[in-house]
Automatic annotation (TrEMBL):
PANTHER family hit by this protein: HYDROLASE, PUTATIVE (AFU_ORTHOLOGUE AFUA_2G14860)-RELATED, MONOACYLGLYCEROL LIPASE
Lineage: Bacteria, Bacillati, Actinomycetota, Actinomycetes, Micrococcales
One GO molecular-function entry: catalytic activity
InterPro entries named among the record's database cross-references: AB_hydrolase_1, AB_hydrolase_fold, AB_hydrolase_sf
Cellular-component GO terms for this entry: membrane
Record's protein name: AB hydrolase-1 domain-containing protein
Domain AB hydrolase-1: 40-282
Length: 290
């Protein structure tokens, strides 16, 4: 296959259900796309943006001349909310379907999701199972869960999140870098990665954080795992993940018959930064599936 030396990008605005506009980036290799290669579509996590995939995209396209689509989830980054004030995780599958319809209406796909983005991929498989089985060559699910039934809420957490959900669409929370480091990363994280993730989280609208909280606590995408199992899949998790506990990540692997499972000792939640090469290699493996 061709080994590209650089990429070109363009920004797209994609209409989504309930009047939302999703902002997406098309990443193209500097040269022709490899014939027959899939389009790679990547969904990011809660309180992040498509920027969270930037390192992985560069690594993938340094080895394969493929087209990659990243986008901001509804209410995140440059994507709007539309008319809804809450966003069930299952409905994120419809947003992903809108992104696919607008950017890759034909041909094979590889889907990748980090954290809430992995849940989005599961929701897409559940809501659009025929399209999934017909077109998806493989999935990579990173630091994600299909359900979180045993999570214990921090006292007052639900009240605070409910209040945030009703606030105007503003971001007013300069959380210290040390807290981002402890919460999102494992052992010995790179300072630049901690700072970049912190900037994304701090810039996320308070209402977005609050509105998604209740969707995440009610998460149940276990039925969708049977559809994902119809195609090759790779689940990746860090043992020091303080956001999506490792037992939840393992349950995703156990729920997808035949899935590959990569365990990363000492790594945390932000594997697109902490283990860029591992995540990119998993996507390349799916790109190469025939």
């Amino acid at each position: 296959m061709t080994k590209p030396t650089s990429v070109a990008t363009r920004t797209l605005s994609i209409p989504a259900p309930n009047g939302a506009m999703l902002s997406a980036t098309e990443h193209l290799p500097d040269g022709p796309v490899d014939a027959g290669s899939p389009t790679v579509v990547l969904a990011h996590g809660w309180t992040l943006t498509r920027q969270a995939w930037a390192r992985v995209v560069r690594e993938v396209q340094s080895h394969r001349a493929v087209r990659v689509i990243t986008y901001d989830q509804r209410g995140h980054g440059r994507s709007t909310w539309g008319s809804v004030r809450s966003q069930p995780i299952k409905d994120l599958g419809d947003d992903l379907a809108a992104v696919i319809a607008a950017t890759a209406p034909n041909g094979p796909l590889v889907l990748g999701g980090h954290s809430m983005g992995g849940m989005t991929v599961m929701a897409y498989a559940g809501r659009h199972s025929s399209d999934f089985t017909d077109r998806v060559r493989g999935t990579v699910l990173v630091s994600t869960a299909a359900s979180i039934p045993d999570r214990k809420a921090v006292p007052g957490e639900a009240f605070l999140m409910g209040a945030m959900a009703r606030l105007p669409l503003v971001s007013l929370r300069p959380v210290p870098a040390g807290l981002h480091r402890w919460t999102n990363f494992g052992e010995n994280p790179e300072k630049a990665a901690v700072n970049e993730v912190g900037r994304m989280i701090n810039a996320t609208r308070l209402a977005t954080t609050g509105r998604y909280y209740f969707s995440l606590t009610g998460l149940d995408e276990r039925e969708a795992l049977a559809t994902i199992a119809t195609r090759p899949s790779h689940v990746i998790g860090g043992t020091k993940d303080r956001i999506t506990f490792f037992r939840w990540i393992r349950s995703v692997h156990e729920g997808i018959a035949g899935s590959e499972f990569t365990i990363l000792p000492g790594k945390g939640h932000m594997l697109p930064y902490e283990a860029t090469d591992v995540v990119a290699d998993a996507l390349i493996g799916m790109i190469d599936e025939s």
